[in-house]
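User: Round two. Same drill as before: sequence, then structure, for each protein.

Assistant: Same drill it is. First protein:
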Amino acid sequence: MMQNVHLAPKVDEDDLYSGYNDYNPTFDTEDLENDTAFQQAVRTSHGRRPPITAKIPGTSASRPLATGLGSKTALSSSMGRPMTGAIQDGVARPLTAVHAAGYTKTALRGSVFDPLGQARGPAPPLEMKNEDTPEEKIRQLEKKVNELVEESCIANSCGDLKLALEKAKDAGRKERMLVRQREQIASPENINLDLTYSVLFNLASQYSANEMYAEALNTYQVIVKNKMFSNGGRLKVNMANIYLKQRNYSKAIKFYRMALDQIPSVHKEMRIKIMQNIGVAFIKTDREQMKKAFQKLIAVPLEIDYDDKYISPNDDPHTNLLIEAIKNDQLRQMERERKSMAEKYIMTAAKLIAPAIETSFAIGYDWCVEVVKASHYVELANDLEINKAITYLRQKDFYQAVETLKMFEKKDSRVKSAAATNLSFLYYLENELVQATNYADLAVNSDRYNPSALTNKGNTVFANGDYEKAAEFYKEALRNDSSCTEALYNIGLTYKKLNKLDEALDCFLKLHAILRNSAQVLYQIASLYEIMEDPNQAIEWLMQLISVVPTDSHALSKLGELYDNEGDKSQAFQYYYESYRYFPSNIEVIEWLGAYYIDTQFCEKAIQYFERAALIQPTQVKWQLMVASCYRRSGNYQKALDTYKEIHRKFPENVECLRFLVRLCTDMGLKEVQEYATKLKRVEKLKEIREQRVKSGRDGSARSRREGSGGGDSGGSAKGERLSAKLRALPGTNEPYESSGNKEIDASYVDPLGPQTERPKTAARKRMDEDEFADEELGEDLLPE
């Protein structure tokens, strides 16, 4: 057992703590003055030489440290250099950094520790900087130039462009002075190119901000032509911007392209912006070309004699006879045609280029008007102003249109009539009949032969209900211009109002020969045949109508109505269904489709139509009652009961709902039957009391009317008879699927071929269902033909 136990051998007689009280002579500082190696290290850089790691033993080589195995190894620092004071090859390693620790070579034992040298007293004063040296003057001048550049930029950002320019000029003067001083005392290579670049660039920017484009271009040229500025070529973009402002588009495009060639492909965003500017310059080039072409068109000589030639200067009979002879000869007719053609070309060109040559069409028209006024086509300027008002109308800017037209109230009669005609039309559209009548009278008084003015005057009279007088104005307009389709259409409506159906049909058939595909004319013809009780002709014309406007829901529903009156339910269903598909909010169509499915015993399909009707008219209880009735007829009693309960919650005093609830609860054996029966009795009693009160109040008012109007005129009785006839014409409460006679149609729906067709057409529009007006539709007789 003890054979595996080994005792540690005794290396030396030292105990475990031996050597700790030994004194190392390396730390003895009293003999440092006599240490030759230390003194040499202090005086020279010998002590700062890096040691050779491979030849230097550990720092503690002078005192081996015993290990657990009894061996002793020399210690070294972590960097592999010997410890301070270690002895190697008989030479002790000198101490380092003794001077920084407060030691000097004359330090004696017991001296005061003063590492900061406070005992030596205050430091000597700093030497004064000599500002008279050329280098110092250059530095101060350079600092001043930078300050001026900064002040110029700040002034520009604050909006003081004049001050910014002055600062930039001052910076430029001082920078040139700085360059001369540098050239005198140093080589040209020492010139601060960055400072020169910034000064010139800022000066060019300030010139451009102050709209001194020539000076800005010259300054940019100085930068661009100097090869010492590596990126100066990119400033050609700024030069191109200046040329663009000067409207020198060809040079702008040239410099943009030169700048694009010098921009590296890595700067994609900058290259895209430059290409965008090139595109803008090309567009502006087109604008300038359009302006130049218009000016050339104005300047084309017609080589014709003007009207002054045909005015007799005196009362010479021979001269007057000669003037009368040549006033309407072939040469004069040719001159008129040439002048008319030139005016037509000028007006067409102005209409085309005015919206494109400037930022807005109004500014473009103003430019065209000024150019025309400076030519011998002065009379066309007023027509251009009229076209400007028409353009405002197309953009639905009625206020600007009215303001533009009002400027012509004091012009000559022809222009005044044209402006008043359009003003009357505008006020008629806005339903301001008083203003429309005033301007219609002004237009007629200014030019009695203006068919548009006569048509608008007839419209105002038509709106006031005087159909006979309106027909006279329309007839006069047709006598002045037989091609005035507006007057022909409106006289047809007037005859229809006067119940002169044959004359109205004749007018619309004539109009159909002129306007073959006019939807309104086709509808009016079909409507007249329906009134004349000729359904076959009405259906035929409605078929032509839907071939022109196949998606018109009103025309489709009218076809369905005619086929239904003829007893053809399948055709009626087809057209009613098509009408519903294009416009699913027509209550009459929805009601017919629901009733059709109930008659054909498809109550489940009728539910969706009555539910849609309930969404459109949520306050009408009849649609919800029809939904519940369809559930009940289809055998879904539980769903019908739930629907009736929901109706009762919304309309607690509805008698029909309570009756069906009582019947359903009785048939299904529910306990709620007694509750609903009690509510039904109470509601019926309240309804009976209300009816008695209404009846008594009606009888009292009838007696008072008889007493107050006994033996009076027959006007009141006739009015009462008409009112009673209207009341009798309303459907009764016992009619199927309706609980009242009110048929509320969605107010947001405007029937394109319904009530609007009864409104007379103004002289300024031929198609009432169009959103825009053609040029010939507003004041079509204003332009010379």
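Second protein:
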Amino acid sequence: MQSDDAQYLKRKVKPGNIDVHPTEKALVVHYEVEAAILGEKGDAMHEERKESQKIIRLRSLNASTDVASLARKVVEECKLIHPSKLAEVEHLIFYLQNRKKPSIEKEEKKLVKPRELTPFEGMEIDEEANINKIDDYVELLYEDVPEKIRGSTLILHLARNPDNLEELLHNETALGALARVLREDWKHSVELATTIVYIFFCFSSFSQFHGLITHYKIGALCMNIVEHELKRYDLWQDELQKKSKAYILDNLRREHEKAYKKYQSLLVKQEQLLRVALYLLLNLAEDTRTELKMRNKNIVHLLVKTLDRDNEELLVLVISFLKKLSIFLENKNDMAEMDIVEKLACLVPCDHEDVMNVTLRLLLNLSFDTGLRTKMVQVGLLPKITALLGNETHKQIVMCILYHISMDDRAKSMFAYTECIPQLMKMLFEHREEKIDSELISFCINLAANKRNAQIICEGNGLKMLMKRALKFKDPLLMKMIRNVSQHDGPLKQLFLDYVGDLAAQISPEEDEEFVIECLGTLANLTIPDLDWELLLREYNLVPYLKDRLKPGSAEDDLILEVVIMIGTVSMDDSCAAMLAKSGIIPALIELLNAQQEDDEFVCQIIYVFYQMVFHQATRDVIIKDTQAPAYLIDLMHDKNTEIRKVCDNTLDIIAEYDEEWGRKIQSEKFRWHNSQWLEMVESRQMDDSEPYLYGDDPDALERPDLFYSTGHYFIIDGSICAFFYCNYINSSWITEKVVLSQYLESNGSNGRPATAYGFRPDEPFYQGHGASS
């Protein structure tokens, strides 16, 4: 609100950038207007800024125009352009002079580029359209249907030229008449509806005209048209099927052919209308708010239903539309409810390259959903897509889809029954560049996590070639794939005996840390009885390296963790464990345990090292007598982490068996824990006001001798526990713990190793991140 002491308005114009008009032969001058209301003393009381633009149309510009003279004239007549910008204006005019006219269908900003909409039956006329006769064409829209078709067709010829759109935009009479005719007569004539929708489609190719289409509600009308035509198609199908049966029974072959030709003629016209209407909707869907309105009107249902058609040009458009919609969760869910994967499976493979390309891209978007990935496998898409790996046009998209499918444990094993793995191995070996494509190596890493796939990978010289390339290029991702292969029990581990020396040679401070992590992880997986770990550690002098890396902060946590896991593996060897104990690794592990006590992964793997070492006499004595490791283990007996509790309990069981003093401490702690749990349970049970007595309303109920169980001499008269009960409790607890140890070893393999965050379970997804997306 303007105050009483305001005196006058101050206005200031600031010139801005100069651009060329996107479609016309014109310059666009941007400028900013600053307005301020000043008070009596000249101070600004209210200020506003507004950005504007001025369009300078160069109607006389053609190939023979003198650009320099025209530029000087523009600068002289337009006060918004400073004389210092003469050279810039001249350059822009020269650009306009040589610019080719833009094509609606080839505009770069379009998300998809289905083939250009070609003229259809009813568009060809002898008369040449003239923009100056637009009023005459509009008058034809008030006549009968044939004249309306003729008038709209003439206007369409004008609209197909982008230079005429601006002038048509200002002719509200023409646009209003077109919208009215479409709204009233679209059911009466497919040709008329197609022609008028095509006119508005020409406007929809440019974002600045979308407001016009929204104003006349053409988008909503197109939705109604598409829905109606799809219902008509269903009726035609039913009618044709009934007639076919009748003609076959009556042996009227000629009548059947006549009915089928009529159906085909209707189908061609209908698909022309569907194509132009859906193309218009696709253009409008650039605005997510408009797209939401389409979803609310069930656009996904209509598009998926259209996938039953055979028209390849229409399919390209429909699938491209679905691909755009699929990036939103709600639309993806709608597609899943419509069984879209089953419909797309019928299009793979396809002879039409454009249909094949957009179908695979849509499948890639859908493959981010676990349920839809499973559906792809169920409908038999896996072997179909795998067969396309050899097609250079589709290889990258296919690789990404298969990579997503390989993330699911159940799907991994399915690849063993296709020709996928041999093709991937061939790609790996023929790859000439040092760095392998991220999609390819990520896919291979996932597949190697399955035992059967790993066996196929190692067939022939597979493992040898992988090791050779990984060691040559020091590729951590390829070594990660090899690491996944090495985790599988059975003959696969034996294949690595020839490469333990090569792997051990890579473990040094000079090598890349990521590569060392994978080499350590591969060696740690080799729980092979025939492997002489002591000789390997001495030959490659690995003990100092392992000990140095146990110091907190000496390296990244991932590397330190792999060192701990490696120590746990080599500690299975008696002489190797003794050598590590003499080197002072056990105190280093305890120090690391203190530093990483909040990290369950570190705690679990360090305790596992102790578990391995207490099996051997030499290291057992060091752990029990020279360190405080048992005390740490007692503290961790009741950790919240289940894996930690299991490994800790089993380690303490072995310590208690060989050392009486620690055995009594461990038994006492177990009894104390169980007793405290019982007391907490009893104390936490509060009596409700409605039940003042725990055993009912009778206060004398506990006085009945027949309700008491025999104590078996476990309690003395004063209520304390006798020694006989204590000893029996401890013995029963000890037996229980030994059973748990046996079950633990059976469930975790012969070495009883706990699973790490990296994963030692064959069907876990190990490497699921790569750069490609859609």
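Residues 218-250 form the longest helix (33 residues).

User: Perfect.
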